[in-house]
Amino acid sequence: MSTLVCFHAHPDDEAIQTGGLMAKAAAAGHRVVLVCATRGEQGEPVEGVLEPGEELWQRRIEELKVSAAALGADEPILLGYEDSGMMDEPANENPACFWQADHDEAVQRLATILQDVEADVLTIYDDHGGYGHPDHIRVHTVGRAAAEEVGIEHVYEATVNRDAMRVMVEAARASGEFDDEDGDGPDTETFGTAEKDISYSIDVAEFVAQKRASMLAHRSQIGPDSFFLTMDDAMFAMAFGTESFNIPGRTDTGGPESIDMLPGLEAS
Protein backbone atom coordinates (compact mmCIF):
# COMPACT_ATOMS: atom_id res chain seq x y z
CA MET A 1 0.00 0.00 0.00
CA SER A 2 1.06 3.59 -0.65
CA THR A 3 0.77 6.93 1.10
CA LEU A 4 -1.05 9.66 -0.80
CA VAL A 5 -0.49 13.25 0.31
CA CYS A 6 -2.89 15.89 -1.03
CA PHE A 7 -1.53 19.40 -0.55
CA HIS A 8 -4.18 22.12 -0.62
CA ALA A 9 -4.37 25.86 -0.04
CA HIS A 10 -7.50 26.32 2.10
CA PRO A 11 -10.06 24.23 3.94
CA ASP A 12 -12.71 23.11 1.38
CA ASP A 13 -10.30 22.96 -1.58
CA GLU A 14 -9.75 19.26 -0.86
CA ALA A 15 -13.47 18.51 -1.15
CA ILE A 16 -13.80 20.02 -4.59
CA GLN A 17 -10.55 19.06 -6.32
CA THR A 18 -9.32 15.75 -4.89
CA GLY A 19 -12.12 14.49 -2.66
CA GLY A 20 -12.95 11.62 -4.98
CA LEU A 21 -9.35 10.46 -5.31
CA MET A 22 -8.85 10.67 -1.56
CA ALA A 23 -11.95 8.57 -0.88
CA LYS A 24 -11.03 6.10 -3.61
CA ALA A 25 -7.47 5.71 -2.35
CA ALA A 26 -8.64 5.24 1.26
CA ALA A 27 -11.18 2.62 0.18
CA ALA A 28 -8.39 0.70 -1.58
CA GLY A 29 -6.42 0.60 1.67
CA HIS A 30 -3.93 3.39 1.03
CA ARG A 31 -3.02 5.94 3.67
CA VAL A 32 -4.36 9.38 2.78
CA VAL A 33 -2.81 12.51 4.30
CA LEU A 34 -4.29 15.98 3.85
CA VAL A 35 -1.93 18.95 4.22
CA CYS A 36 -3.43 22.45 4.19
CA ALA A 37 -1.22 25.51 3.69
CA THR A 38 -3.53 28.01 5.42
CA ARG A 39 -6.44 28.22 7.83
CA GLY A 40 -8.66 30.09 5.36
CA GLU A 41 -8.97 33.32 7.33
CA GLN A 42 -9.98 35.34 4.25
CA GLY A 43 -13.03 33.28 3.37
CA GLU A 44 -16.49 34.85 3.46
CA PRO A 45 -18.57 33.05 6.10
CA VAL A 46 -22.12 32.00 5.37
CA GLU A 47 -24.43 34.22 7.38
CA GLY A 48 -25.42 32.84 10.76
CA VAL A 49 -22.92 29.98 10.87
CA LEU A 50 -20.35 31.37 13.31
CA GLU A 51 -21.06 31.36 17.03
CA PRO A 52 -20.66 34.63 18.98
CA GLY A 53 -16.94 35.29 19.43
CA GLU A 54 -15.92 32.46 17.14
CA GLU A 55 -13.20 33.26 14.60
CA LEU A 56 -13.66 32.02 11.04
CA TRP A 57 -10.33 30.21 11.04
CA GLN A 58 -11.35 28.23 14.12
CA ARG A 59 -14.51 27.01 12.43
CA ARG A 60 -12.71 26.20 9.19
CA ILE A 61 -10.17 23.98 10.94
CA GLU A 62 -12.97 22.02 12.59
CA GLU A 63 -14.75 21.73 9.25
CA LEU A 64 -11.53 20.48 7.66
CA LYS A 65 -11.30 17.69 10.23
CA VAL A 66 -14.87 16.57 9.51
CA SER A 67 -14.22 16.69 5.77
CA ALA A 68 -11.03 14.62 6.07
CA ALA A 69 -12.86 11.99 8.11
CA ALA A 70 -15.64 11.81 5.50
CA LEU A 71 -13.00 11.08 2.85
CA GLY A 72 -11.13 8.48 4.90
CA ALA A 73 -8.05 10.64 5.43
CA ASP A 74 -5.90 11.11 8.52
CA GLU A 75 -6.50 14.17 10.68
CA PRO A 76 -5.33 17.17 8.60
CA ILE A 77 -1.89 18.71 8.98
CA LEU A 78 -1.59 22.51 8.76
CA LEU A 79 1.50 24.06 7.20
CA GLY A 80 1.09 27.12 9.44
CA TYR A 81 0.48 30.10 7.16
CA GLU A 82 -2.36 32.61 6.93
CA ASP A 83 -4.72 32.99 4.00
CA SER A 84 -3.45 35.45 1.36
CA GLY A 85 -6.83 36.38 -0.08
CA MET A 86 -7.47 36.81 -3.79
CA MET A 87 -4.77 38.28 -6.05
CA ASP A 88 -4.16 42.04 -5.63
CA GLU A 89 -6.10 42.26 -2.35
CA PRO A 90 -4.52 43.98 0.70
CA ALA A 91 -4.28 40.60 2.45
CA ASN A 92 -1.51 39.69 -0.05
CA GLU A 93 0.80 42.00 1.91
CA ASN A 94 0.33 40.25 5.25
CA PRO A 95 3.84 39.02 6.23
CA ALA A 96 2.28 35.91 7.82
CA CYS A 97 0.38 34.88 4.69
CA PHE A 98 1.42 32.04 2.40
CA TRP A 99 2.02 34.39 -0.55
CA GLN A 100 4.67 36.26 1.47
CA ALA A 101 6.25 33.14 3.01
CA ASP A 102 9.94 32.53 2.51
CA HIS A 103 10.06 29.95 -0.28
CA ASP A 104 12.83 27.82 1.18
CA GLU A 105 11.25 27.78 4.63
CA ALA A 106 7.88 26.72 3.21
CA VAL A 107 9.55 24.00 1.16
CA GLN A 108 11.29 22.68 4.27
CA ARG A 109 8.05 22.62 6.25
CA LEU A 110 6.35 20.55 3.58
CA ALA A 111 9.37 18.35 2.91
CA THR A 112 9.53 17.45 6.59
CA ILE A 113 5.89 16.36 6.52
CA LEU A 114 6.42 14.34 3.35
CA GLN A 115 9.36 12.55 4.93
CA ASP A 116 7.54 11.95 8.22
CA VAL A 117 4.56 10.28 6.53
CA GLU A 118 6.75 8.49 3.95
CA ALA A 119 4.80 9.94 1.03
CA ASP A 120 4.72 7.98 -2.22
CA VAL A 121 2.37 10.24 -4.18
CA LEU A 122 1.81 14.00 -3.92
CA THR A 123 -0.96 16.07 -5.48
CA ILE A 124 -0.57 19.82 -5.88
CA TYR A 125 -2.23 22.30 -8.32
CA ASP A 126 -1.50 23.27 -11.90
CA ASP A 127 0.97 26.09 -12.55
CA HIS A 128 -1.62 28.88 -12.32
CA GLY A 129 -3.39 27.42 -9.33
CA GLY A 130 -6.49 26.68 -11.35
CA TYR A 131 -7.70 30.28 -11.40
CA GLY A 132 -4.80 32.47 -10.32
CA HIS A 133 -5.27 32.50 -6.55
CA PRO A 134 -1.92 33.34 -4.93
CA ASP A 135 -2.12 30.55 -2.35
CA HIS A 136 -2.90 28.01 -5.06
CA ILE A 137 0.06 29.18 -7.12
CA ARG A 138 2.31 28.76 -4.09
CA VAL A 139 0.97 25.26 -3.47
CA HIS A 140 2.23 24.46 -6.97
CA THR A 141 5.70 25.99 -6.58
CA VAL A 142 6.30 24.89 -2.98
CA GLY A 143 4.87 21.44 -3.65
CA ARG A 144 7.06 20.78 -6.66
CA ALA A 145 10.20 21.94 -4.85
CA ALA A 146 9.46 19.86 -1.75
CA ALA A 147 8.77 16.75 -3.84
CA GLU A 148 12.08 17.22 -5.65
CA GLU A 149 13.95 17.63 -2.37
CA VAL A 150 12.44 14.50 -0.87
CA GLY A 151 12.66 12.52 -4.09
CA ILE A 152 8.97 11.81 -4.71
CA GLU A 153 8.59 10.45 -8.22
CA HIS A 154 4.81 10.59 -8.48
CA VAL A 155 3.66 14.24 -8.46
CA TYR A 156 0.34 15.19 -10.02
CA GLU A 157 -1.27 18.58 -10.54
CA ALA A 158 -4.96 18.65 -9.68
CA THR A 159 -6.77 20.71 -12.27
CA VAL A 160 -10.19 21.17 -13.87
CA ASN A 161 -11.10 20.08 -17.37
CA ARG A 162 -11.86 23.51 -18.84
CA ASP A 163 -13.76 22.14 -21.83
CA ALA A 164 -15.96 19.85 -19.76
CA MET A 165 -16.63 22.66 -17.27
CA ARG A 166 -17.69 24.97 -20.12
CA VAL A 167 -20.24 22.42 -21.32
CA MET A 168 -21.58 21.92 -17.79
CA VAL A 169 -21.85 25.65 -17.06
CA GLU A 170 -23.63 26.33 -20.34
CA ALA A 171 -26.08 23.50 -19.67
CA ALA A 172 -26.74 24.82 -16.16
CA ARG A 173 -27.32 28.32 -17.50
CA ALA A 174 -29.72 27.04 -20.14
CA SER A 175 -31.71 25.11 -17.52
CA GLY A 176 -31.80 28.09 -15.16
CA GLU A 177 -29.86 26.24 -12.45
CA PHE A 178 -26.97 28.68 -12.63
CA ASP A 179 -27.20 32.46 -12.95
CA ASP A 180 -23.96 34.43 -13.06
CA GLU A 181 -25.17 37.68 -14.53
CA ASP A 182 -23.25 39.49 -11.78
CA GLY A 183 -19.99 38.34 -13.37
CA ASP A 184 -18.93 36.10 -10.48
CA GLY A 185 -19.14 32.91 -12.49
CA PRO A 186 -16.03 30.97 -13.60
CA ASP A 187 -14.00 32.25 -16.55
CA THR A 188 -14.37 29.26 -18.81
CA GLU A 189 -11.64 30.57 -21.12
CA THR A 190 -8.85 30.44 -18.52
CA PHE A 191 -10.02 28.31 -15.59
CA GLY A 192 -8.25 24.96 -15.19
CA THR A 193 -6.62 23.22 -18.15
CA ALA A 194 -7.69 22.62 -21.73
CA GLU A 195 -8.69 18.99 -22.23
CA LYS A 196 -5.92 18.39 -24.78
CA ASP A 197 -3.29 19.22 -22.14
CA ILE A 198 -4.64 17.02 -19.31
CA SER A 199 -2.64 13.88 -18.53
CA TYR A 200 -5.08 11.77 -16.51
CA SER A 201 -8.75 11.56 -15.66
CA ILE A 202 -9.94 9.42 -12.78
CA ASP A 203 -13.47 8.06 -12.46
CA VAL A 204 -14.63 8.78 -8.91
CA ALA A 205 -18.38 8.42 -9.55
CA GLU A 206 -18.56 5.67 -6.93
CA PHE A 207 -17.41 8.17 -4.31
CA VAL A 208 -19.49 11.26 -5.10
CA ALA A 209 -21.59 10.74 -1.95
CA GLN A 210 -18.44 11.06 0.16
CA LYS A 211 -17.40 14.06 -1.91
CA ARG A 212 -20.75 15.72 -1.25
CA ALA A 213 -20.42 14.92 2.48
CA SER A 214 -16.98 16.54 2.42
CA MET A 215 -18.48 19.69 0.89
CA LEU A 216 -21.32 19.68 3.41
CA ALA A 217 -18.73 19.68 6.20
CA HIS A 218 -17.62 23.16 5.10
CA ARG A 219 -20.79 24.89 6.25
CA SER A 220 -19.07 28.25 6.74
CA GLN A 221 -18.19 28.43 3.03
CA ILE A 222 -20.66 26.24 1.16
CA GLY A 223 -24.20 27.00 2.26
CA PRO A 224 -27.12 24.59 1.75
CA ASP A 225 -28.45 26.81 -1.04
CA SER A 226 -25.13 26.96 -2.91
CA PHE A 227 -24.97 25.95 -6.55
CA PHE A 228 -22.81 22.93 -5.65
CA LEU A 229 -25.25 21.50 -3.13
CA THR A 230 -28.52 22.27 -4.88
CA MET A 231 -27.56 20.21 -7.94
CA ASP A 232 -29.60 17.06 -8.41
CA ASP A 233 -27.71 13.77 -8.16
CA ALA A 234 -27.23 13.44 -11.91
CA MET A 235 -25.80 16.95 -12.31
CA PHE A 236 -23.58 16.53 -9.25
CA ALA A 237 -22.20 13.26 -10.61
CA MET A 238 -21.52 14.90 -13.98
CA ALA A 239 -19.74 17.82 -12.32
CA PHE A 240 -17.74 15.92 -9.72
CA GLY A 241 -17.62 12.28 -10.82
CA THR A 242 -14.33 12.75 -12.68
CA GLU A 243 -11.14 14.37 -11.40
CA SER A 244 -8.33 15.60 -13.64
CA PHE A 245 -4.58 15.69 -13.13
CA ASN A 246 -1.60 16.98 -15.07
CA ILE A 247 1.96 15.71 -15.15
CA PRO A 248 4.25 18.70 -14.39
CA GLY A 249 5.69 20.14 -17.57
CA ARG A 250 3.57 18.10 -19.99
CA THR A 251 1.23 19.79 -22.47
CA ASP A 252 -0.67 18.76 -25.60
CA THR A 253 -1.07 15.19 -24.39
CA GLY A 254 -3.91 14.60 -26.80
CA GLY A 255 -6.37 14.49 -23.94
CA PRO A 256 -6.53 12.69 -20.62
CA GLU A 257 -5.77 9.02 -20.24
CA SER A 258 -8.50 7.41 -18.16
CA ILE A 259 -6.92 5.37 -15.36
CA ASP A 260 -8.29 3.53 -12.34
CA MET A 261 -5.81 4.96 -9.84
CA LEU A 262 -2.86 7.32 -10.07
CA PRO A 263 0.44 5.59 -10.78
CA GLY A 264 2.04 4.85 -7.43
CA LEU A 265 -1.34 4.03 -5.88
CA GLU A 266 -1.81 0.51 -7.13
CA ALA A 267 -5.05 -0.79 -5.64
CA SER A 268 -4.94 -4.13 -3.84
- Biggest sheet features: 8 strands, mixed
Residue windows where pLDDT falls under 50 for at least 5 positions: none
Radius of gyration: 17 Å
> Whole-Å distance between the termini?
7 Å
Shape: globular
Structural class: alpha/beta
Architecture, according to CATH?
Answer: 3-Layer(aba) Sandwich
Task: Specify the helix fraction band.
Answer: 25-40%
Strand and helix order: EHHEHEHEHEHEHHHEE
Mean pLDDT: 91
Number of domains: 1
The CATH C-level class name: Alpha Beta
CATH superfamily: LmbE-like
Number of helices: 9
Strand order of the largest sheet: 3-2-1-4-5-7-6-8
Task: Outline the structure in words.
It is a single chain. The protein is globular. It has an 8-stranded mixed β-sheet. The chain is 36% helix and 16% strand. Helix 3 (56-71) runs antiparallel to helix 7 (208-217). With 268 residues, it is α/β, with parallel strands linked by helices. 44% of the residues are buried. The protein has one domain (3-249): Rossmann fold. The protein has 9 helices and 8 strands.
